[in-house]
Amino acid sequence: MEKLKDFSQIVTQAARGELVFPTSVNAALRLQLALADPDCEMEDVIRKVLGEPVLAARTVALANAAVFNRSGTPVTSVRAAVQRVGFRNLYTMAAAMVVRQFGARIECPRLRAQAEQLWRHTAHVAALAHVIGRKLTSTDPDTALFAGIVHEAGGFYLLSQADDIPGLLDDPAGWMGAAQEIISREMMRKLNIPEPVSQAIVSLRGATLTPPPLGLRDTLLIAKALAPVRSPLAGEDSPSLKHFIDDNALLEQILLESAEDAASMSAALLV
After folding, report:
1. Which end of the chain has fewer surrounding CB within 10 Å, N or C?
2. Distance in angstroms (rounded) separating the CA atoms of residues 165 and 7
3. 3-state secondary structure 181-216
């Protein structure tokens, strides 16, 4: 009963827009805010990245990750890195840093392991969504990559809260679904996630695939089903991919291309 009370309080806070973010994410949030401005200038972005050592290091690392460095030519400066990845993917990186910080502050070894598993799942889903959008669902690949990175933001938040409230997430399958949706919606709002991306993410829970697969939600559903690392959170159901990817050669190509991207992206965005 006490656990349900604690969870109810977290949900109430989310519904009121009172989710608390770690102070360590401020630099990434400031960068996101600047990048969301249509009049944002390249020099202003570079200054903000250079002003935070972790942001600078991660920007260069991301630019050299396989997903953005097909030529194999490394960049060694923030300016070159920003030019290579572009504002949209820099926005994705900033969002990833925010998401990762919730897992980084967890002290309980069991919950920390779950957060690490959730991050590996996230990296695979993002990399798979990037390839699936390009090859299967006619979805903008960069948008799919971004959606994959932030689609479990609510899960990371709940894991961080469980670190302060032991047993919070024990056996939650029967009563957590609607609450997770509320928390996910508020996380999308706090992170300034564009509405089409937010809607696709919030609608994932309980969704089914209807042929032909199209759009961002279907892209994420397929990516989650194909991800070799499952989410550690309860209620993770994988839709059947029968009749969706009948071409084995295409499936193998999707898995092959995404595997290297997931590994390099996970390392580049690790904070």
Report:
1. N
2. 9
3. HHHHHHHHHHCCCCHHHHHHHHCCCCCCCCCCCCHH
CB atoms near residue 77 (< 10 Å)? 14
Calculate Rg over the CA atoms of the chain. Answer: 18
Instruction: Tell me how crowded residue 2 is: count the other CB atoms within 10 A of its CB.
Output: 8
> How far is it, in rounded angstroms, from Cα 135 to Cα 271?
30
Q: Where are the domains of the chain?
A: 2-269
Note whether 145 and 126 are within 8 A (CB): yes
Tens-digit pLDDT profile for residues 227-248: 988 988 855 556 556 555 656 6
pLDDT of residue 89: 85
Task: Give the fold, CATH level 3, of 2-269.
Answer: Hypothetical protein af1432 (1.10.3210)
- Paired tokens of 155: 């899960």
